Amino acid sequence: MENFFAPCPRGVETLLEGEFDALELKNLKRVPGGVHFDSDWLGCYSANLYSRIATRVLWRVAHGPYAVEDDIYRLAKDVPWHRFFSPAQTIRVGVTAVKSPLKSLEFITLRIKDAVCDRFRAETGQRPSVDTREADIRIHAFIDAERCTLYIDTSGAPLHQRGLRRKTVDAPIKENLAAAILHMTGWQPGTPLYDPMCGSGTFLLEAVQIALGIAPGASGRSFGFQGLKNFQPEIWKAVLETAHARAKPVRFAQIYGSDSSPVALRATLANLDRAGLLPAVSLKPGDILDTDAPTETPGTLVANPPYGERLSELEELAAFYPRLASAFKRRFAGWNCWLLSSDTRMPKLMRLTPGRKIPLFNGGLECRLYEFRMVSGSNRAK
Fold first, then answer.
1. How high is the pLDDT of residue 380?
2. Which is nearest to 49 in space by CA: 249, 235, 262, 282?
3. How do beta strands 365-373 and 336-341 pair?
């Protein structure tokens, strides 16, 4: 059994723990920002393939106390890196520190890189090259006040990069956060789902994959573990074949999208089409303020409205929110509407009382996921 850590967006750790429990991974330990677990390599491959919430799956290769930078150098040099990958492969080192007394992350990064290269020279007479953009092997260090942990990234590119969304628009939401939000809304496949501000289609793409049982890592992307010396291709092939066999044929899934921007709508259409998922979604142009609900049967509305940064944009949003509330009450009676926003003025300006208010982070931006259960007329508490 090996020890792994999977980071995720802050606020969705419980959902990630639930995913890993369903995969029967062992010794789950939820912490702020992710979940630790123990597993064999089959479990590692499965976590990378099936998790909709995780950002990465990191394999722990060293853990120990430190007082100065040289202690971290020695910890890193003691790791038999040459058993894990070849000196012909490129490396990248990243460091995250919380409450560390050490002042320079750049110097710590350099010392870890030196330790890896020095161990390779001692064992093989060669050293790997550094590639800060597209490295074959990504090494991560996490440093707290007293201890340093070293990981090898088994994911490669972040797991939220499904390989489906090639065209994007401004302020896109990451796929793993979108998947988490869909789970939080309580939406179930087979019931209507509508994104009236679909942007490049992130919510729609995630919803279709959930509805059709498509594993998020099964779209043909590569993973970091495939470059490790202990990679077991026969096990990976079996895991991948099982995932493909579980996926349902692509058919309409009662998922609807619209946007007032022709550019955004074209991006969504292109992304769904390239992924082979376009038949599952109904798309049409439209402004949320003037668009009727897509079905007579109430469902779930989820949207990521624009965020205001400049004063003029904030003033526009202040005028937009009351009109949005009016449109919801007039056109979406019976629907459960969820909005992700960093603008804390939203509920007050909409004159609606949210049923739930969930703190989330969209990247580094602190947001709230607001739930508005719509009824005809006012939705404010009496």
1. 47
2. 235
3. antiparallel
